Amino acid sequence: LRRAGLGLLGFGTVGRALANLVVEDRSRLERDVGVHFALVAVGNRGVARKRAEWSGGAPPRFTEDLESVVDDPDVSIVVELLGGLEPAGALVARALAAGKSVVTANKLLLAERGSELAALARMHGAGLGVEASVAGGIPILRALRESLAGDALLSVGGILNGTCNFILSGMEKTGRSYAEMLADAQRLGYAEADPSADVLGGDAACKLTLLARMAFGQEVALRDVAKEGITHLMPCDFVYAKALGRTLKQLATCAALPDGRLLLGVRTHLVAGHALLAKLEGPFNAVRVVARRAGELVFTGRGAGGDPTAVAVLSDVLELARAVRPEVPPFGFESLAPRRLAGPEDFVAPFALRFVVRDRPGIIAEIARCLAEHEVNIDAVLQEPFGEKSALPFVMTVEPIAEARLLGALQAIRELPFHAEEPAAFPMTS
Amino acid sequence: LRRAGLGLLGFGTVGRALANLVVEDRSRLERDVGVHFALVAVGNRGVARKRAEWSGGAPPRFTEDLESVVDDPDVSIVVELLGGLEPAGALVARALAAGKSVVTANKLLLAERGSELAALARMHGAGLGVEASVAGGIPILRALRESLAGDALLSVGGILNGTCNFILSGMEKTGRSYAEMLADAQRLGYAEADPSADVLGGDAACKLTLLARMAFGQEVALRDVAKEGITHLMPCDFVYAKALGRTLKQLATCAALPDGRLLLGVRTHLVAGHALLAKLEGPFNAVRVVARRAGELVFTGRGAGGDPTAVAVLSDVLELARAVRPEVPPFGFESLAPRRLAGPEDFVAPFALRFVVRDRPGIIAEIARCLAEHEVNIDAVLQEPFGEKSALPFVMTVEPIAEARLLGALQAIRELPFHAEEPAAFPMTS
Hints:
Two copies of one chain form a homodimer.
Chain A: E1 2-9, H1 13-24, H2 26-33, E2 35-43, H3 47-52, E3 61-63, H4 66-71, E4 77-80, H5 88-97, E5 101-104, H6 107-123, E6 128-129, H7 140-147, E7 153-159, H8 162-174, H9 178-187, H10 196-199, H11 202-216, E8 226-227, H12 235-243, E9 246-256, E10 262-272, E11 285-291, E12 295-301, H13 306-322, E13 348-357, H14 363-373, E14 378-382, E15 392-402, H15 403-414, E16 424-429
Parallel strand pairs in A: 1-2, 1-4, 2-3, 4-5, 5-6, 8-10, 10-16
Antiparallel strand pairs in A: 7-9, 7-11, 9-10, 11-12, 13-15, 13-16, 14-15
Helix pairs in contact in A: 1-13, 5-6, 6-11, 8-9, 14-15
């Protein structure tokens, strides 16, 4: 039986779930996978408390000296679950430089330093497992790296933030406000006390960066992703969405234009009601891949949480432990081509524009004039019978238009004096 | 650059798609994957016609002598796309015995002889790639084998036959009859001239056999799957499904009971309208996996067709070509435990029973008496205002009951004299 000594950096939700999995399922793993796993050392702050939480028989060595976990001669695979750039980055680099394979769920670290760490891994003959860094329990990176390796990809993306999806599908279902649903998400543990990474789109943008590198082999950086939060959504938006036969979803999207440039964004889309992604409710993730030959694939599952993420971490640990020699660093994190980016002038879609105005005559005419001046063609005007004279919501849909031109028109409209809320624009996609 | 010489057995839709892929994308594959592929030989009947179809530069050796493809010293990987048990089985065995790796999309061969072929592969140090055998372009076997290897599975299954899904979702959408939708499917190339393997459930049962072996490591055989076709479905069934907030879907399901026994079936289910699988329209597949820790995962995509299947075949070819030594035969095809099966006495669900009767007084009372005698509790009776006196459809829903007991009741009801059509029973699941 092959033996793998694990060193765990970080003993929070995912670390505990992974430790439970390795301890409880040891005999099943030995039988099915042919590897004997030993959890050798666990590094975390507040180690006395963490040690007290241990319930799985003989405990591993608990320590606050994180470097000692990496340096432990019995540790052959380091699992980094600290999150954040430091000290995680230094510890991962230290392990790789010592020829030890690393498995990490740290999307921020990979988005910022993925290529450098992959090169370090290759130089020292170590492996680097990253499956858990995107969409938790959904095995999307392995699908891109192995299953679709023979195909050419056209687009990748989807619902990458479960917190946003919980809030949006809850607003749709209950008619409640963003603030109420956010409070619910926080109460249920789906959102942090400071939810900004989730609700402002940064988390989804980070995952999209990694997906885009894997899928298209370009050096995409976090700052290349145009992002927009969900904090401005109002209950009326869901009423109009329904009237349009659509649903509001935060989608992270990366599409390759025919000339090879990538169009990257995190936005709230009005998704067609018949689309699979429109049906996904609650704190789940869905990744949609369109490949030239394989067509459209959709993968859904739990994008976060201790147990699903631990299963993804373990899948990398198993692959590294079974490998005759550690796999070369995963496809998409080294030898990347320079990125070639498209911008808002390349993002063309029909949009729905939502305005909330103080009722007075001639408003639609003024907006229509602004749109016409920017050559934006109105398709329809929807006004549901609700709202008050001081804050009357209505929606205009416009024919397919480049986002850049639409933003110009909206800039002019925004300066008109009758708005009770900031205007919002949602692309309508399928 | 590593070199891989491919020998192709069968040059139909998938074979041609694979050849196109390898030829057209040769430079991309060399760059991304680091392997130079040469299509060395193609074996098929009517070789003059097949050779005439070649359009990709210097043609490979075309031959009707299939053994010569396997024996060609330049062929290191044999791709078997003949289908059926023979001569495919003898050729695959011949290749493996010579130490050549084999990639096959042949689900019937794997269902009947998978374990034997896997053992042969191991004995001779050859690899055996089977990804394309289940759900075409959906990378489900690799997900089970690698991504979920660290988890314990609870159930696996889904919509495994795209032809049935095309017919059922078409009946739902258009109100047309089974026969009309089948004719449509045949016209569009989604169904064969003899559609029985698809519409009677055999194709889905075969795929389920392979999935069940992979997921649960038991020696499941094709005959262990209880199967039912879709040929008895009537337009009224979709009207009642809608009234129940549900959709009719052919689902292949394999669930592990707490005692480890497997419950296997291919049936038409009344799926809850909010379930993702209820939303899948057209000739697509969806595989649903429930794992103890990772939770529910759903994978959707194209389950058939030349290009998607060729991408799946190529993913195995790439894995074998890149491997330092061929992977051991895939998890789930050897060292299987004896199967332990559950039966209709273990399949418990609420059911909807559809009757079409010649109208006369007291029918519901007679049916209710039969059900009561078998201790089946009626939940509700639905009768939509359509049908004629000579063929009046209605539906009874019953509380959760073991299928075995329900079948007993239905046997008695079937003997009553007022039926205009065979009664039908659909489990209601989510």
